[in-house]
Fold this protein.
Amino acid sequence: MTPHAPFSLAHSSRHPSAVRRVPWAAWAVACGLVLSTSGVQAQSLVTLFESAKDFDATYQAARASHDAAQAKADQARAGLLPSVGLSAGASRSNVDYASAVPPDRSFNSQNATVAASQPLYRPANRLGFEQGQKSLLVAKAQLQAAQQDLIIRTTQAYFDVLAAEDTVRFVDAQKAAVAEQLAAAKRNFEVGTSTVTDSREAQARFDLVLAQEIAAANDLRVKKLALDTLVGTANTAPQPLALPVDLPTPQPDDVQHWVNLAETTHPSVQQASTALEVAQLETRKAEAGHGPTLDLTAQYQMARSPSATTGNILRSNTATVGVQFNMPLFAGYAIQNRVKETLALEEKARADLDAARRSVAQATRAAFFGVQSGKGQVRALEAAEASSQSALDANKLGYQVGVRINIDVLNAQSQLFQTKRDLAKARYDVLVGGLRLKQASGGLSPEDLTSVNALIKP
Protein backbone atom coordinates (compact mmCIF):
# COMPACT_ATOMS: atom_id res chain seq x y z
CA MET A 1 0.00 0.00 0.00
CA THR A 2 1.51 3.31 -1.04
CA PRO A 3 1.28 6.56 0.90
CA HIS A 4 -0.61 8.29 -1.90
CA ALA A 5 -2.85 5.43 -2.99
CA PRO A 6 -6.46 5.37 -1.75
CA PHE A 7 -6.99 3.03 1.14
CA SER A 8 -9.19 0.03 0.47
CA LEU A 9 -10.11 -0.99 3.99
CA ALA A 10 -13.53 -2.53 3.60
CA HIS A 11 -15.66 -1.98 6.65
CA SER A 12 -19.29 -2.06 7.62
CA SER A 13 -21.35 1.05 8.33
CA ARG A 14 -20.16 2.84 11.43
CA HIS A 15 -22.16 2.82 14.58
CA PRO A 16 -23.63 6.32 15.21
CA SER A 17 -21.95 6.55 18.59
CA ALA A 18 -18.58 5.87 16.96
CA VAL A 19 -18.54 9.24 15.28
CA ARG A 20 -20.80 11.40 17.40
CA ARG A 21 -17.89 12.47 19.57
CA VAL A 22 -15.91 13.99 16.70
CA PRO A 23 -15.23 17.60 17.74
CA TRP A 24 -16.18 20.37 15.36
CA ALA A 25 -12.58 21.68 15.43
CA ALA A 26 -11.33 18.52 13.69
CA TRP A 27 -13.88 18.85 10.93
CA ALA A 28 -13.13 22.56 10.56
CA VAL A 29 -9.40 21.89 10.19
CA ALA A 30 -9.98 19.14 7.64
CA CYS A 31 -12.42 21.23 5.62
CA GLY A 32 -10.02 24.19 5.69
CA LEU A 33 -7.23 22.07 4.24
CA VAL A 34 -9.48 20.80 1.48
CA LEU A 35 -10.66 24.29 0.57
CA SER A 36 -7.14 25.73 0.65
CA THR A 37 -5.83 23.21 -1.87
CA SER A 38 -8.85 22.87 -4.13
CA GLY A 39 -8.41 24.31 -7.58
CA VAL A 40 -4.62 24.60 -7.19
CA GLN A 41 -2.47 23.01 -9.86
CA ALA A 42 0.30 20.82 -8.44
CA GLN A 43 3.87 22.00 -9.03
CA SER A 44 7.01 19.97 -9.58
CA LEU A 45 10.21 20.33 -7.60
CA VAL A 46 12.03 22.03 -10.49
CA THR A 47 9.21 24.56 -10.93
CA LEU A 48 9.23 25.52 -7.27
CA PHE A 49 13.02 25.83 -7.24
CA GLU A 50 12.92 28.27 -10.15
CA SER A 51 10.36 30.31 -8.23
CA ALA A 52 12.57 30.25 -5.14
CA LYS A 53 15.57 31.56 -7.11
CA ASP A 54 13.61 34.66 -8.07
CA PHE A 55 12.16 35.22 -4.60
CA ASP A 56 14.47 33.99 -1.86
CA ALA A 57 16.14 36.93 -0.12
CA THR A 58 19.24 34.99 0.95
CA TYR A 59 20.01 33.92 -2.61
CA GLN A 60 19.28 37.41 -3.96
CA ALA A 61 21.73 38.87 -1.42
CA ALA A 62 24.43 36.42 -2.54
CA ARG A 63 23.84 37.34 -6.17
CA ALA A 64 24.07 41.07 -5.37
CA SER A 65 27.30 40.42 -3.46
CA HIS A 66 28.70 38.64 -6.52
CA ASP A 67 27.81 41.62 -8.75
CA ALA A 68 29.53 43.96 -6.29
CA ALA A 69 32.65 41.77 -6.35
CA GLN A 70 32.65 41.94 -10.15
CA ALA A 71 32.60 45.73 -10.03
CA LYS A 72 35.36 45.77 -7.40
CA ALA A 73 37.54 43.52 -9.55
CA ASP A 74 37.12 45.98 -12.42
CA GLN A 75 38.20 48.78 -10.07
CA ALA A 76 41.51 47.01 -9.43
CA ARG A 77 42.24 47.11 -13.17
CA ALA A 78 42.45 50.90 -12.98
CA GLY A 79 45.91 50.69 -11.40
CA LEU A 80 47.31 49.30 -14.67
CA LEU A 81 45.64 51.77 -17.02
CA PRO A 82 46.58 55.39 -17.78
CA SER A 83 44.96 58.24 -15.90
CA VAL A 84 44.11 61.57 -17.57
CA GLY A 85 43.03 64.77 -15.85
CA LEU A 86 41.92 68.20 -16.95
CA SER A 87 42.40 71.32 -14.84
CA ALA A 88 41.54 74.93 -15.59
CA GLY A 89 41.68 78.19 -13.69
CA ALA A 90 40.91 81.88 -14.01
CA SER A 91 41.98 84.77 -11.82
CA ARG A 92 41.69 88.55 -11.66
CA SER A 93 44.55 90.69 -10.41
CA ASN A 94 44.64 94.33 -9.34
CA VAL A 95 48.07 96.03 -9.43
CA ASP A 96 48.55 99.18 -7.35
CA TYR A 97 51.82 100.95 -8.20
CA ALA A 98 53.44 103.40 -5.82
CA SER A 99 54.36 105.81 -8.63
CA ALA A 100 51.89 107.51 -10.92
CA VAL A 101 53.37 105.77 -13.99
CA PRO A 102 52.20 103.33 -15.04
CA PRO A 103 48.70 103.85 -13.73
CA ASP A 104 46.90 101.34 -11.59
CA ARG A 105 45.41 98.55 -13.61
CA SER A 106 43.46 95.26 -13.26
CA PHE A 107 43.77 92.25 -15.56
CA ASN A 108 42.52 88.68 -15.94
CA SER A 109 44.54 85.47 -16.33
CA GLN A 110 43.36 82.05 -17.58
CA ASN A 111 45.05 78.65 -17.85
CA ALA A 112 44.09 75.09 -18.77
CA THR A 113 46.15 71.93 -18.31
CA VAL A 114 45.73 68.35 -19.52
CA ALA A 115 47.92 65.84 -17.64
CA ALA A 116 48.26 62.10 -18.21
CA SER A 117 50.17 59.38 -16.40
CA GLN A 118 50.84 55.75 -17.32
CA PRO A 119 52.37 53.36 -14.79
CA LEU A 120 55.44 51.69 -16.22
CA TYR A 121 56.68 49.78 -13.19
CA ARG A 122 54.35 49.47 -10.20
CA PRO A 123 54.41 45.90 -8.83
CA ALA A 124 51.83 46.74 -6.15
CA ASN A 125 49.28 47.75 -8.80
CA ARG A 126 49.79 44.49 -10.72
CA LEU A 127 49.40 42.46 -7.52
CA GLY A 128 46.29 44.45 -6.60
CA PHE A 129 44.76 43.56 -9.96
CA GLU A 130 45.47 39.86 -9.37
CA GLN A 131 43.88 40.14 -5.94
CA GLY A 132 40.76 41.60 -7.51
CA GLN A 133 40.46 38.64 -9.85
CA LYS A 134 40.96 36.20 -6.95
CA SER A 135 38.32 38.01 -4.89
CA LEU A 136 35.90 37.55 -7.77
CA LEU A 137 36.51 33.79 -7.59
CA VAL A 138 35.65 33.91 -3.88
CA ALA A 139 32.39 35.68 -4.68
CA LYS A 140 31.56 33.07 -7.33
CA ALA A 141 32.16 30.28 -4.82
CA GLN A 142 29.91 32.07 -2.31
CA LEU A 143 27.17 32.37 -4.93
CA GLN A 144 27.55 28.68 -5.76
CA ALA A 145 27.25 27.79 -2.07
CA ALA A 146 24.12 29.95 -1.77
CA GLN A 147 22.57 28.21 -4.77
CA GLN A 148 23.33 24.78 -3.34
CA ASP A 149 21.84 25.81 -0.01
CA LEU A 150 18.70 27.02 -1.79
CA ILE A 151 18.40 23.67 -3.59
CA ILE A 152 18.53 21.82 -0.26
CA ARG A 153 16.11 24.20 1.46
CA THR A 154 13.62 23.97 -1.38
CA THR A 155 13.83 20.18 -1.58
CA GLN A 156 13.52 19.81 2.19
CA ALA A 157 10.49 22.10 2.33
CA TYR A 158 8.96 20.27 -0.66
CA PHE A 159 9.23 16.84 0.96
CA ASP A 160 8.24 18.21 4.37
CA VAL A 161 4.88 19.12 2.83
CA LEU A 162 4.54 15.67 1.25
CA ALA A 163 5.41 14.01 4.57
CA ALA A 164 2.83 16.14 6.37
CA GLU A 165 0.21 15.24 3.75
CA ASP A 166 1.06 11.57 4.21
CA THR A 167 0.62 11.92 7.96
CA VAL A 168 -2.81 13.51 7.51
CA ARG A 169 -3.79 10.73 5.12
CA PHE A 170 -2.55 7.96 7.39
CA VAL A 171 -4.22 9.44 10.46
CA ASP A 172 -7.49 9.72 8.56
CA ALA A 173 -7.23 6.08 7.48
CA GLN A 174 -6.36 5.05 11.03
CA LYS A 175 -9.37 6.97 12.31
CA ALA A 176 -11.61 5.08 9.89
CA ALA A 177 -10.15 1.73 10.98
CA VAL A 178 -10.48 2.57 14.69
CA ALA A 179 -14.05 3.77 14.14
CA GLU A 180 -14.81 0.43 12.50
CA GLN A 181 -13.29 -1.41 15.47
CA LEU A 182 -15.21 0.80 17.89
CA ALA A 183 -18.49 0.04 16.13
CA ALA A 184 -17.72 -3.68 16.19
CA ALA A 185 -16.89 -3.58 19.91
CA LYS A 186 -20.16 -1.80 20.66
CA ARG A 187 -22.15 -4.33 18.64
CA ASN A 188 -20.43 -7.24 20.37
CA PHE A 189 -21.12 -5.68 23.77
CA GLU A 190 -24.76 -5.19 22.92
CA VAL A 191 -25.15 -8.85 21.96
CA GLY A 192 -23.12 -9.93 24.97
CA THR A 193 -20.10 -11.43 23.22
CA SER A 194 -17.58 -8.90 24.65
CA THR A 195 -17.09 -6.76 27.71
CA VAL A 196 -17.46 -3.02 28.06
CA THR A 197 -13.65 -2.84 28.29
CA ASP A 198 -13.37 -3.41 24.55
CA SER A 199 -15.66 -0.48 23.82
CA ARG A 200 -13.84 1.83 26.20
CA GLU A 201 -10.44 0.87 24.81
CA ALA A 202 -11.64 1.51 21.27
CA GLN A 203 -13.23 4.81 22.29
CA ALA A 204 -10.01 5.92 24.01
CA ARG A 205 -7.98 5.05 20.90
CA PHE A 206 -10.52 6.86 18.69
CA ASP A 207 -10.24 10.03 20.80
CA LEU A 208 -6.45 9.81 20.64
CA VAL A 209 -6.56 9.55 16.84
CA LEU A 210 -8.76 12.66 16.71
CA ALA A 211 -6.11 14.58 18.64
CA GLN A 212 -3.46 13.28 16.25
CA GLU A 213 -5.60 14.38 13.32
CA ILE A 214 -5.77 17.97 14.58
CA ALA A 215 -2.01 18.05 15.20
CA ALA A 216 -1.29 16.56 11.76
CA ALA A 217 -3.55 19.09 10.05
CA ASN A 218 -1.84 21.98 11.83
CA ASP A 219 1.61 20.60 10.97
CA LEU A 220 0.59 20.40 7.32
CA ARG A 221 -0.57 24.01 7.39
CA VAL A 222 2.74 25.15 8.91
CA LYS A 223 4.78 23.16 6.35
CA LYS A 224 2.78 24.65 3.49
CA LEU A 225 3.32 28.16 4.82
CA ALA A 226 7.06 27.51 5.03
CA LEU A 227 7.16 26.35 1.41
CA ASP A 228 4.99 29.27 0.29
CA THR A 229 7.33 31.71 2.02
CA LEU A 230 10.38 30.15 0.41
CA VAL A 231 9.13 30.15 -3.18
CA GLY A 232 6.94 33.26 -3.01
CA THR A 233 3.80 31.45 -4.21
CA ALA A 234 0.56 31.06 -2.28
CA ASN A 235 -1.13 27.66 -1.86
CA THR A 236 1.71 25.57 -3.28
CA ALA A 237 0.78 21.97 -4.04
CA PRO A 238 3.85 19.70 -4.44
CA GLN A 239 3.44 16.70 -6.70
CA PRO A 240 3.80 13.37 -4.81
CA LEU A 241 6.27 10.59 -5.50
CA ALA A 242 5.30 7.99 -8.07
CA LEU A 243 5.23 4.72 -6.14
CA PRO A 244 6.77 2.22 -6.17
CA VAL A 245 9.98 4.23 -6.35
CA ASP A 246 13.50 3.04 -7.08
CA LEU A 247 15.66 5.17 -4.80
CA PRO A 248 19.01 6.13 -6.38
CA THR A 249 22.32 4.88 -4.98
CA PRO A 250 25.39 7.18 -4.74
CA GLN A 251 27.67 6.56 -7.71
CA PRO A 252 30.37 5.56 -7.15
CA ASP A 253 29.50 3.75 -3.94
CA ASP A 254 32.84 4.68 -2.35
CA VAL A 255 33.06 7.18 0.49
CA GLN A 256 36.71 8.07 -0.19
CA HIS A 257 35.86 9.15 -3.73
CA TRP A 258 33.30 11.61 -2.39
CA VAL A 259 35.71 12.87 0.27
CA ASN A 260 38.46 13.49 -2.31
CA LEU A 261 35.97 15.31 -4.49
CA ALA A 262 34.82 17.48 -1.59
CA GLU A 263 38.37 18.48 -0.64
CA THR A 264 38.93 19.99 -4.09
CA THR A 265 35.54 21.19 -5.40
CA HIS A 266 33.51 22.22 -2.36
CA PRO A 267 32.74 25.97 -2.42
CA SER A 268 34.03 26.52 1.12
CA VAL A 269 37.33 24.84 0.22
CA GLN A 270 37.56 26.92 -2.95
CA GLN A 271 36.89 30.07 -0.93
CA ALA A 272 39.56 29.19 1.63
CA SER A 273 42.07 28.23 -1.06
CA THR A 274 41.50 31.46 -2.95
CA ALA A 275 41.67 33.45 0.28
CA LEU A 276 45.11 31.94 0.89
CA GLU A 277 46.25 33.03 -2.57
CA VAL A 278 44.92 36.54 -1.88
CA ALA A 279 46.84 36.63 1.40
CA GLN A 280 50.02 35.55 -0.37
CA LEU A 281 49.55 38.31 -2.94
CA GLU A 282 49.02 40.79 -0.11
CA THR A 283 52.38 39.77 1.35
CA ARG A 284 54.09 40.33 -1.99
CA LYS A 285 52.34 43.68 -2.33
CA ALA A 286 53.59 44.72 1.11
CA GLU A 287 57.13 43.68 0.22
CA ALA A 288 56.88 45.75 -2.97
CA GLY A 289 56.67 48.84 -0.76
CA HIS A 290 60.47 48.68 -0.49
CA GLY A 291 60.93 48.93 -4.26
CA PRO A 292 60.92 51.83 -6.73
CA THR A 293 58.10 52.92 -9.04
CA LEU A 294 58.32 54.40 -12.53
CA ASP A 295 55.58 56.34 -14.36
CA LEU A 296 55.34 57.90 -17.78
CA THR A 297 53.95 61.43 -17.55
CA ALA A 298 52.70 63.88 -20.16
CA GLN A 299 51.26 67.38 -19.80
CA TYR A 300 49.95 70.09 -22.08
CA GLN A 301 49.24 73.58 -20.69
CA MET A 302 47.70 76.67 -22.24
CA ALA A 303 47.97 80.01 -20.41
CA ARG A 304 46.79 83.57 -21.13
CA SER A 305 47.69 86.63 -19.06
CA PRO A 306 48.60 90.30 -19.71
CA SER A 307 51.99 91.75 -18.89
CA ALA A 308 52.04 93.59 -15.61
CA THR A 309 54.20 96.35 -17.05
CA THR A 310 53.25 96.79 -20.68
CA GLY A 311 49.69 95.52 -20.61
CA ASN A 312 50.26 93.30 -23.64
CA ILE A 313 48.48 89.90 -23.68
CA LEU A 314 50.89 86.98 -23.23
CA ARG A 315 49.87 83.56 -24.48
CA SER A 316 51.85 80.33 -23.95
CA ASN A 317 51.37 76.68 -24.91
CA THR A 318 53.62 74.21 -23.11
CA ALA A 319 53.93 70.46 -23.78
CA THR A 320 55.91 68.20 -21.45
CA VAL A 321 56.71 64.48 -21.67
CA GLY A 322 58.84 62.61 -19.17
CA VAL A 323 59.25 59.81 -16.67
CA GLN A 324 58.87 60.00 -12.93
CA PHE A 325 60.95 57.83 -10.62
CA ASN A 326 60.19 57.31 -6.93
CA MET A 327 62.25 55.35 -4.43
CA PRO A 328 61.19 55.02 -0.78
CA LEU A 329 64.16 55.33 1.56
CA PHE A 330 62.68 55.28 5.06
CA ALA A 331 59.05 55.19 6.22
CA GLY A 332 59.41 54.75 9.97
CA TYR A 333 59.43 50.92 9.74
CA ALA A 334 55.84 50.99 8.43
CA ILE A 335 56.67 48.72 5.48
CA GLN A 336 58.53 46.16 7.59
CA ASN A 337 55.65 45.93 10.08
CA ARG A 338 53.14 45.67 7.27
CA VAL A 339 55.04 42.67 5.91
CA LYS A 340 54.93 41.01 9.34
CA GLU A 341 51.18 41.59 9.50
CA THR A 342 50.53 40.06 6.10
CA LEU A 343 52.69 37.03 6.90
CA ALA A 344 50.57 36.38 10.00
CA LEU A 345 47.38 36.76 7.98
CA GLU A 346 48.81 34.34 5.44
CA GLU A 347 49.27 31.73 8.17
CA LYS A 348 45.70 32.32 9.30
CA ALA A 349 44.43 31.75 5.78
CA ARG A 350 46.43 28.53 5.55
CA ALA A 351 44.91 27.30 8.82
CA ASP A 352 41.42 28.25 7.58
CA LEU A 353 42.01 26.15 4.47
CA ASP A 354 42.99 23.12 6.56
CA ALA A 355 39.91 23.59 8.73
CA ALA A 356 37.65 23.84 5.68
CA ARG A 357 39.03 20.63 4.19
CA ARG A 358 38.57 18.73 7.45
CA SER A 359 35.06 20.08 7.89
CA VAL A 360 33.85 19.14 4.41
CA ALA A 361 35.49 15.71 4.69
CA GLN A 362 33.59 15.03 7.91
CA ALA A 363 30.33 16.35 6.45
CA THR A 364 30.77 14.26 3.30
CA ARG A 365 31.35 11.06 5.27
CA ALA A 366 28.31 11.77 7.42
CA ALA A 367 26.16 12.46 4.34
CA PHE A 368 27.38 9.32 2.55
CA PHE A 369 26.72 7.02 5.48
CA GLY A 370 23.41 8.80 6.06
CA VAL A 371 22.25 7.86 2.56
CA GLN A 372 23.36 4.27 3.03
CA SER A 373 21.63 4.08 6.41
CA GLY A 374 18.49 5.65 4.95
CA LYS A 375 18.28 3.09 2.17
CA GLY A 376 18.69 0.33 4.73
CA GLN A 377 15.88 1.82 6.79
CA VAL A 378 13.63 1.94 3.74
CA ARG A 379 14.22 -1.75 3.05
CA ALA A 380 13.60 -2.61 6.70
CA LEU A 381 10.44 -0.52 6.87
CA GLU A 382 9.12 -2.07 3.66
CA ALA A 383 9.53 -5.47 5.27
CA ALA A 384 7.99 -4.13 8.49
CA GLU A 385 5.01 -2.79 6.53
CA ALA A 386 4.31 -6.22 5.07
CA SER A 387 4.77 -7.84 8.48
CA SER A 388 2.52 -5.28 10.19
CA GLN A 389 -0.19 -5.84 7.60
CA SER A 390 0.02 -9.60 8.17
CA ALA A 391 -0.06 -9.08 11.94
CA LEU A 392 -3.15 -6.88 11.62
CA ASP A 393 -4.94 -9.45 9.48
CA ALA A 394 -4.04 -12.19 11.95
CA ASN A 395 -5.25 -10.16 14.93
CA LYS A 396 -8.51 -9.34 13.19
CA LEU A 397 -9.08 -13.02 12.49
CA GLY A 398 -8.13 -13.93 16.04
CA TYR A 399 -10.53 -11.32 17.39
CA GLN A 400 -13.33 -12.78 15.31
CA VAL A 401 -12.73 -16.29 16.62
CA GLY A 402 -12.17 -15.12 20.17
CA VAL A 403 -8.44 -15.73 20.68
CA ARG A 404 -7.50 -12.04 20.48
CA ILE A 405 -8.97 -9.06 22.32
CA ASN A 406 -9.88 -5.66 20.96
CA ILE A 407 -6.72 -3.94 22.20
CA ASP A 408 -4.61 -6.36 20.17
CA VAL A 409 -6.34 -5.26 16.98
CA LEU A 410 -6.04 -1.60 17.91
CA ASN A 411 -2.32 -1.93 18.62
CA ALA A 412 -1.78 -3.77 15.34
CA GLN A 413 -3.62 -1.00 13.46
CA SER A 414 -1.56 1.69 15.17
CA GLN A 415 1.68 -0.13 14.39
CA LEU A 416 0.73 -0.53 10.72
CA PHE A 417 -0.05 3.14 10.15
CA GLN A 418 3.02 4.27 12.11
CA THR A 419 5.16 2.03 9.92
CA LYS A 420 3.57 3.45 6.77
CA ARG A 421 4.26 6.98 7.94
CA ASP A 422 7.87 6.16 8.85
CA LEU A 423 8.39 4.46 5.49
CA ALA A 424 7.11 7.44 3.54
CA LYS A 425 9.34 9.84 5.49
CA ALA A 426 12.35 7.52 5.11
CA ARG A 427 11.96 7.66 1.32
CA TYR A 428 11.95 11.44 1.38
CA ASP A 429 14.97 11.50 3.68
CA VAL A 430 16.94 9.30 1.27
CA LEU A 431 16.20 11.62 -1.65
CA VAL A 432 17.15 14.73 0.34
CA GLY A 433 20.19 12.89 1.71
CA GLY A 434 21.40 12.16 -1.82
CA LEU A 435 21.29 15.86 -2.61
CA ARG A 436 23.02 16.67 0.69
CA LEU A 437 25.80 14.26 -0.27
CA LYS A 438 26.34 16.11 -3.53
CA GLN A 439 26.25 19.40 -1.64
CA ALA A 440 28.82 18.11 0.84
CA SER A 441 31.08 17.07 -2.03
CA GLY A 442 30.61 20.43 -3.75
CA GLY A 443 29.02 19.00 -6.89
CA LEU A 444 25.35 19.88 -6.33
CA SER A 445 23.75 21.77 -9.21
CA PRO A 446 20.19 22.55 -10.38
CA GLU A 447 20.50 19.71 -12.92
CA ASP A 448 20.52 17.24 -10.00
CA LEU A 449 16.91 18.20 -9.28
CA THR A 450 15.94 16.75 -12.66
CA SER A 451 16.74 13.21 -11.54
CA VAL A 452 14.69 13.70 -8.37
CA ASN A 453 11.92 15.32 -10.34
CA ALA A 454 11.75 12.23 -12.58
CA LEU A 455 10.58 10.24 -9.53
CA ILE A 456 7.64 12.56 -8.97
CA LYS A 457 4.15 11.75 -10.23
CA PRO A 458 3.15 14.25 -12.94
Summary: The mean pLDDT is 86.
